[in-house]
Write a structure and sequence with these properties.
Blueprint lengths: L2 E3 L2 E3 L7 E5 L4 E8 L7 E10 L3 E4 L3 E5 L9 E6 L7 E5 L8 E4 L3 E8 L3 E9 L7 E10 L3 E4 L3 E5 L9 E6 L7 E5 L8 E4 L3 E5 L9 E6 L7 E5 L8 E4 L3 E5 L9 E6 L7 E5 L8 E4 L6
Antiparallel strand pairs: 1-2, 3-4, 3-26, 4-5, 6-7, 7-8, 8-9, 10-11, 11-12, 12-13, 14-15, 15-16, 16-17, 18-19, 19-20, 20-21, 22-23, 23-24, 24-25
Length: about 300
């Protein structure tokens, strides 16, 4: 419901949702879209480091991009104020320099999961988003992997897919407000890595990835339960190393590669099932990027 305060009107959260896409293909580019609309992305600013395969998480006001690789693994976390535009500012460091991590968040805490240093790791660490400073150890994932992806409800963080010795279908979860090791959740419908993830407060989606062929599969889980994923529909273009973000109602999948870098953004309505629809284009075609929003399911 739209709220009235004084003489100003405030749109519902879904209508004010902004999605950011950062990094990929060795760039420092951040661009953004208004999730409730459709259309091409607009330049936002630059990351603190030009990186491939960073991870993104956010509160309703602040977005964090962490880790990645710039010739070697980095531990850098940078942050932006989502409602504005401008370059990222240094936040602190991950506990372990790595790329290909998954990330998710509640309104207060950001969680980075697994990735690769020179070998796959099972490290989970966390930060308090409203502050700055280095990450703290959270626990371990159920297996060491890279190129997984994460989403959340306000209480639970879920990580799925990734690469161990091959594409895997493992989904595991943590309780964001606590610390401790991840617990098995279930399996994806198709084992794949470089998958994208997004969610409402109740339903989480995994889209695309590599099997090792490029996939157009979107599947979903109910976050509060455990169990295997269910088929949702298909992306507009099969691709891996893409990234996802969401409003409370709509999920976006952007970038990736289907043999060459893509600028495609497509969207779905999270509460339904069905194939994705074209949304628009990123400012720069790229894969191995990260994304976040100010209205995702963890808030």
């Amino acid at each position: 419901m739209t709220l009235l305060l004084g003489l100003g009107f405030f749109a519902p959260i879904a209508d004010r949702a902004r999605g950011l896409f950062g990094g990929g293909n060795g760039t420092n580019v951040i661009d953004y879209v208004e999730i409730a609309t459709t259309g091409n992305a607009t330049d936002f600013g630059d990351l603190t480091v030009s990186v491939d395969v960073p991870a993104g998480c956010s509160s309703s006001t602040r977005g964090l991009f962490g880790g990645g690789t710039a010739a070697s693994s980095v531990n850098v976390i940078g942050y932006v104020t989502i409602a504005s535009t401008g370059n990222a500012t240094d936040f602190g460091d991950l506990t372990v320099a790595r790329w290909g991590a998954g990330a998710c968040s509640s309104s207060t805490r950001g969680v980075f999961s697994s990735g690769v240093t020179t070998v796959n790791t099972n490290v989970i660490d966390y930060v308090t988003i409203a502050s700055t400073g280095n990450a703290t150890d959270f626990g371990d994932t159920t297996l060491s992997r890279r190129r997984s992806s994460g989403f959340s409800s306000p209480t639970r963080g879920v990580f799925g897919g990734g690469y161990v010795a091959a594409a895997n279908n493992v989904i595991d979860y943590v309780t964001i407000a606590s610390t401790g090791n991840a617990t098995d959740f279930g399996n994806l419908t198709v084992a794949r890595y470089g998958v994208a993830a997004c969610s409402s407060s109740t339903r989480g989606l995994f889209g695309g990835g590599t099997t090792p062929s490029y996939s157009n599969v979107i599947d979903y889980v109910t976050i509060a339960t455990t169990g295997n994923a269910t088929d949702f529909g298909d992306l507009t273009v099969a691709r891996g190393l893409l990234s996802g973000c969401s409003s409370p109602t709509r999920g976006l999948f952007g970038g990736g590669t289907g043999g060459s870098s893509s600028n495609v953004i497509d969207y779905v309505e999270i509460a339904t099932t069905g194939n994705a629809t074209d949304f628009g284009d990123l400012t720069v075609a790229r894969s191995a990027l990260a994304s976040l929003s100010n209205a995702h399911g963890g808030l």
